[in-house]
Structures are given as structure tokens and as C-alpha cells.
Amino acid sequence: MFQDFKLVDDRPVVIQVKEYLKRLMIKGALQADQKLPSTREMSGLLKVSRNTVIAAYEGLADDGFAYAIPGKGSYVAAIVDQSATDSGGTEGPASWQVDWKAKMNEYAVSAVELDMMKQGIRAQKGTISFTSIAPDEHLFDLGDVKRAFMDRMAIEGQVLLNYGYAKGYKPLMEYLMRYMENKGVDISGKDMLITSGFTEGFDMVLSALRPSGRRGAAICENPTHHTAIKNLKLHGFEITGIPLERDGIDVERLEAVLKANRFDLAYLIPSYHNPTGIVMSPAKRSAVMNVMSRYQVPVIEDGFNEELRYSGAHVSPLIATVGKGNGVIYIGSFSKVLFPGLRVGWVLGDRALIDTLESIKRARTIHTSTIDQAILYQYLLNGNFDKYVKKARTEYKRKYELTKACCEAHLPEAQLSGDGGLHLFLAFPPGVNTRQLLAACTEQGVIFTPGDKFFIAEGEGVHTLRLGFSRVTDENIERGIRIIGEQTRKFLQG
After folding, report:
1. Could you say which DSSP state residue 93 is in?
2. What is the pLDDT of residues 232-290, one digit of tens each?
3. Which of 458, 454, 456 shows the shortest CA–CA distance to 240?
4. Quick check: 346 and 168 in contact, CB under 8 A?
5. Segment holding 191, helix H or strand E
6. Distance between alpha carbon 76 and the CA centroid of its chain, in Å?
7. Is the C-alpha dihedral spanning 318, 322, 323, 328 positive or negative?
8. Contact 467/426 with Cβ under 8 angstroms?
9. Strand, coil or helix: what is 269?
10. Alpha-carbon dihedral sign for residues 338, 366, 210, 459
11. How would DSSP label each residue in 307-336?
């Protein structure tokens, strides 16, 4: 006994000794009321200091796994839990098996089927991957983040480590309300809820707006964000896709569809649309809002990548175009601009809606991490955001232009779209199936995201793909796109 004890470098030795002995007790290798070796003897057996063993024995006693008899030593305490071996044969809990897959409901099964990450290709080491549209971590200004953390903890650290409010951290909410007001949003009659990123906010809004007793009906751009498609389907919405033009959604087609059908909501990404990268023009934004207002269809606006504008004038979000109107729900996040690890997003909308969402949030997750909110608030308050965005915008613009130039050189057959952000969208001639192209490119060490994932109906967009360039080196951008071009020509020639 005790021969299998091995120390690891990254944990305190006392805790390792205590947990090792605890495991022996739980497994029954050390029995109730059995005397433990003396601290001197155990120190020799485990090759640790005697003081370490003394502290470990005290920790076991504190946890109820050992007791000391003065003058005699330490003993193993009786453990109340019965181990699986004490179940008394094959009919007890030890042999109890549940077929969990058979118990999964339709929602759970659908979640697995729609899980893009689970079904995606696992990149081998050395693979050039264009699948990610996350920010490049090499741009993160860690010094400013550490300072923000230390500054806020010094001010109210004990408060931040306790429960927070479902609605959110008040200083951050006040900052973000001003931030949205500076985008041209009329915040009168509106309120805000802080969420754990965009997806939680979207999921809660859909939970609140999902019709009772019938399937919901939603309008989206086609193609659109895969996560939105997944969540709409999981909430039982039938989705109608409206095609995109070079400056955004096809307004004539949108109005024709609204005339013929009843819809519960619309989901739109007006800026640096995912996956196409298209920015909806100011004129089209006004036209879309007029149509939605006429047919009384609430709009969920995804503020995706709004800050990554590489050229042209600022374009106000849809929620700014409706003034005091309350028909738009804006869901924002800094995940693609700042730090995805800080899971902070927000929902801005009518006060009555936010009041309901606050109760849903409290019932589900109580509140978004207060520490995450406070770090973000202090980081913004310290004036770091503008400095970081300027740096990020410069670097991503450079990569965007390099990627675009490489596509034009090596993929002249493809039609490109994307006015900024962290990706480009490519549409090939009908003879190119990008799933088959992906398989061929994977063998050459290059992967990307097939475009059909972003389309509403099965079989659409099979000739498209999305290229995320934010985390790819210049050398790999050039090499990877050249390989995609070589494989594309094989398809076209074949």
C-alpha cells in the first residue's frame, strides 16, 4: 500500500496527500477505525515532509474522514456512504443501468442533430483552419485587462464575489445604455438585461416570444447565422428565408412574403452579416423597418461585429431607425471584437419585455458572472476599448485585404461578399459542391466552413463556403487559399 502515490507539480503537496488518502478510504483500502501510520512513518512512505502529513491528517479530520485519539494517533472515520460493492448482489444500485439516449426528448435529440461543432471536422495538428471567426488572442491587451481586474477588485471585490442581480451589474448597464445612445438609439421607454453572451439572450427572447399551442413563424435572411437557425428550430419556429442582395435583404421579396403569411418575429443581422459579411445600406434599413412596422412583426437585431467597420461612414443599427418605437429587440455582445472568454452580452428593448426577461433569467441562471461584468465595465471605463478597437480594426483590415486579394488571385471562379468583420463568403459555380471540396482540401491540410450550414432549407448553398481569417497567419492565408484554388479547379475540370 501507498506505493502508487505520485506527486504532480501544479498542486499543493498537502492537498495531494489528503486527496490520495481520502480515495483509499472511499475505496475501502483503508477501513473504518483502522489506525493510520504515524506522521513520521507516513512521511517516509509517501516521501513528503512530516509537516505535510500532519496538515493532511488535520484536513482529513476537518472533512470527517479521520479522527484523532490523543496519545494514540489518527484513525479512519466510518464513512456513511455505502460503496457500490456493498449493494448486496446484482439487483442493487451497482448494477442499475439507464438507457439515457432512449430518455432524451425531441428538444435534446434535435440539439445534437443541429450541433455544428460536434459534427465539424477536427483539425489535425498543422492544419490550416479557416473555420473560426473568433478574435485573434495575440491582439488581447492582457496588461489592461489585469489592471481592470485589480482596479475593480480593489474597489468592491467582496461584493463582486457574492451573488449579483439578474438584470445585471448596474454600472455596466448604465455604461452600455450610453454606448447605445451614442449609436443613435432613443433609449426612452427601453431597458437592458445583461446576459452570458449573445446566444443566451437570443434563447431567452425566443422563450418569451414562442407562441403557445402552435408552431411559431419566423423570418430570417437566407443564409443566416447557424446558431440562430438552430435555436429557432429548437424553439419550434418554422423559418422563412429571404434572399440577400449586395446591400442587404431583398425588400420586395420580404414584403411579398409578409403579405401572404403571418409571422411572430424576424431575426436580422444588418452589419457584417454572418456568413455573407454584407452591410445593409441605410436606405434599405429604413425600408425594412417601414415594412416590419406596417405588418407589425417584431425584429430581433443581432449587433454582430458592428465595430469592425473598415471603411465608409457609421451606419446606425436598426433599433436607432425606429426612434421611440419599441418594435426592435437589440442583442449585443463584444465577443467578436473583444474577449469571448468574458461571457457578457446584453438585450436592449421595451421595458415590459426586459422585465419579463429578467424573471426568465432569474429562473434559469440567477445572474451573469458579476466578476466578468465588472472587469468589462472597468476595462471600458479605463478608456481601453477605443484603443483596442483601433488596433484590432487595423490588423483585421490588413488580413481582410490580404484574404480578399488571395481569393481574387487563386479563386477567380468564386463570387466574393464581405465588407468587413472577420470572414469572407464565397459562392462558386454550380459544379462545385463545397462539402466535397472540403473533403479534398482536408487531405491537403486545409479546412473551412461549408456554406450550406447557414441556409434555411436542406440542399441550399451547397456551392458556398465561409472563410474565417482572423486567427490565420499571413503565410497560411496565402498557402491555404492557393490549395483551395487548386482543388476547386480539379472539380471544375472534372
Report:
1. G
2. 999 999 999 999 999 999 999 999 999 999 999 999 999 989 999 999 999 999 999 99
3. 456
4. yes
5. strand 190-195
6. 46
7. negative
8. yes
9. coil
10. positive
11. T---SS-----HHHHTTT---EEEEEE-TT
Element housing 219 (H / E): strand 216-222
Sign of the dihedral defined by the CA atoms of residues 172, 174, 180, 183, in that order:
negative
Are 65 and 25 a contacting pair, CB within 8 Å? yes
CB atoms within 10 A of CB 39: 18
**Which of the 8 DSSP states describes residue 2?**
-
Dist. CA 311–CA 296, nearest whole Å: 34
425: Cα within 13 Å, side-chain hemisphere: 27
Separation between Cα atoms, residue 102 and residue 105, nearest integer Å: 8
Provide the pairing of β-strand 345-350 with 190-195. antiparallel
CA distances in angstroms from 116 to 1, 202, 481, 484, listed in the order given = 48, 17, 23, 22
All three cell numbers of 240, joined, read: 422563412
CB atoms within 10 A of CB 332: 25
Is the alpha carbon torsion for 84, 90, 92, 95 positive or negative? positive
Quick check: 305 and 280 in contact, CB under 8 A?
Answer: no
Closest CA to 142 of 342, 307, 422, 333: 342
- The three-point CA angle 100-104-108 to 5° equals 130
Residue 37 DSSP symbol: P
For the question of whether the overall pTM of this predicted structure is more than 0.85, the answer is yes
pLDDT in tens, 91-130: 677 788 888 889 988 888 888 888 877 666 666 788 999 9
The C-alpha cell 458556398 sits at 464
* Bridge partners for 241 per DSSP: 220
Q: Is 459 left (phi over 0), alpha (psi -120 to 50) or beta?
A: left
- pLDDT > 90? residue 335: no
Dist. CA 375–CA 61, nearest whole Å:
38
Q: What is the CA radius of gyration of the chain?
A: 28
Half-sphere CA count of 440, side-chain side, radius 13 A? 15
| Contact of 336 with 303, CB cutoff 8 Å | no
**ω into residue 270 within 30 of 0, thus cis?**
no
Helix/strand/coil for 302:
strand
The cell for 423 is 470572414
Rounded CA-CA distance 98/35 in Å is 39
* pLDDT for the residue numbered 490: 87
Do residues 67 and 30 touch, judged by C-beta distance below 8 A? Answer: no
